[in-house]
Amino acid sequence: MNMAIEPQKQFLSTTQNYPEAFGDTLSRTKSSSDTLKLTLIDRKRPLLTSSETSTEIEIKRKKYVRTFNETQSVVCNQKFVEIPKRHETFAKWPKDKPLPAVDEMVKAGFFYSGAQTIVSCFYCNGSLQNWTTKENPTTEHARWFPHCAYIRQLCGDELFQRIQQAKRDQKQPHTSSSTQISILDDNTLSKYVAARLDLPISQHLSDKYRRLIIKRCYEDQLKLKLDDFPGDTDLHMACLILQKQIDVIDGKKEKIIIPSKKLQEITDKNMKEQKTLLDTSESLAEPQKSQTQAFNLSPSLNISMCTVCLMDERRLACMPCGHVATCVPCGHSLRTCPMCRRTIDGFVRVYI
């Protein structure tokens, strides 16, 4: 009889001591559960409230910035998916507050929240404020909210990576070079150049290049960079380039080619040739044949344009049908494919 009662007492003792042994674990679980509930509720609100903590909100250069740890897979603000709906919200923008072009704001995915100067993205719910007229909404959106799938599609990989690289470069501390050479006048420059002409590398290069060329390279380097050449190879390359320039130009200014002007001349020449060829073909062809050619040419000119706005190029493929029919802003405002009317489940950014 005593043997049966003893295990029962031991079981009751263990059960009574359970809260004491695992009290800390239970409290931590309850605390994390409450935090999770607050975070989920918070993500439904586009505006800052007093209940949000500093870890959930980042304030950067007086910008109101919401940060999320994961990429949004669904649109946060379905009400503002359509471009006209976002455009209408800016009618209430304060007249005394600066703002970039409304069309650019709408294209970048922003709509006006109605509070101060805060705008929010319809897709990722990210918000910014304190705008100036010279700021680029697309760049600012990609800069502060790299997780947003809409802005990544709008920018494309190349532009998006450039924006992120510029952001990383800004975060790195800029160290002023203490090795820069102070050149006060031409006499000081002459002294520096004369000292460098006596270096072994200068003596070695004098066998291939005239002394005047080496001197000119040193002068240009010290004037522009206020520093020496990083290495002997850089000095050798500078002398080679200067020598080639002198050989080609040969003192004649008309031989100096400016890339931008030369490219414009080539473009104008090609345009004139195409126009002359087109006029000749139209004059020789029959009227009916000319109409057929015009009909065949017109689609080729607009085949890459968005089927909705007819302004931007097609950049989105509708899934699952795969039709490439719209630009990024117009595509995200549609529910069905404009080509086959099939329901759109998602988009893929394409490069044509």
Structure, explained:
With 352 residues, the protein is mainly alpha-helical. The chain folds into four domains: 57-171, Inhibitor Of Apoptosis Protein (2mihbC-IAP-1), Chain A, CATH 1.10.1170; 186-253; 257-302; 304-352, Zinc/RING finger domain, C3HC4 (zinc finger) (Herpes Virus-1). Helix content is 52%, strand content 8%. It has twelve helices and eight strands. The chain has helices spanning 2-42, 83-89, 102-107, 137-144, 149-171, 186-197, 200-205, 211-225, 232-249, 259-284, 287-302, 328-331; strands spanning 57-60, 63-66, 110-112, 119-121, 127-128, 316-319, 324-326, 346-349. The strands form three sheets. A three-stranded antiparallel sheet has the order 3-4-5. Strand 3 (110-112) and strand 4 form a beta hairpin. Helix 4 (137-144) crosses helix 5 and helix 6 crosses helix 8 (211-225). It is extended. Pfam families: BIR, zf-C3HC4_3. This is RING-type domain-containing protein. GO terms for molecular function: cysteine-type endopeptidase inhibitor activity involved in apoptotic process; ubiquitin protein ligase activity; zinc ion binding.
